[in-house]
Amino acid sequence: MKSRTLLALLLALLTTVGCNGQNNNQPKTQKSNTMSKSIVIFFSHAGDNYSVGNIEVGNTKIVADYISEITGADQYEIVTHKYDGMAYMPLIDLAKKEAADGELPPYEGSALDLTAYDTVFIGGPVWWGTYPQVMFTLFKDINLDGKTVIPFTTHEGSGLASCVSDVKKAFPKAKVTKGFDIYGHEVRSGRAKVEKWLSTL
Question: Is the model's pTM score more than 0.85?
Answer without folding.
Answer: no
